[in-house]
Specification:
By secondary structure, the protein is an alpha/beta fold. It is built from eight helices and five strands. The protein is globular and about 55 Å long.
Length: 198
Amino acid sequence: MNTLTEYEREFAAEYIIAGVDEAGRGPLAGPVTAAAVIFPADIVIKDIDDSKKLKAVVREHLAKEIKLKAISWAVGQASVEEIDRLNILGATRLAMTRAIEKLNIRPGLCLVDGYSHPGWHIRHIGVVKGDQRCFTIAAASILAKVYRDNYMLELHYRFPYYGFDRHKGYPTISHREAILKYGPCEFHRKSFRLLPVD
């Protein structure tokens, strides 16, 4: 995608829209991170796509361009403690809320990757596979992924034996083996199954 889709333009004709997405729902360690972004109607950024489909160096480059060309963008996180207390869905919604509320322009409507959140006080529409269908959501997915990956890289320097620089906290075999050997650290999600069941 290089610009807003027709689906987004229909809403943008009536509202200031923000694309919202998260990174880090599945890992065993680290925060869940959300990003929100608002673009001008004539925005053009080449090769915007679901962050998971892009190489890290491409994501870094696109994140810089997104920040430069957006009207407003923001990132919010929910901590490991909040994930354990609220569950991952509640913590994801909290991270999204924080990102949206940090925008310096109030959106009239948020297009959120995935399903809608009943009872959420923010006006939104859930878009299944939104990071593949909406330019704004895909851009938000890139911002969230880059921010979280860099955060996990910082954790790697504090806890190098877990290999956070490689797997970013996701449940790889090497990560689980490190947890088995060293035990969990303060940034592991205690409510998640950290080790495989025999």
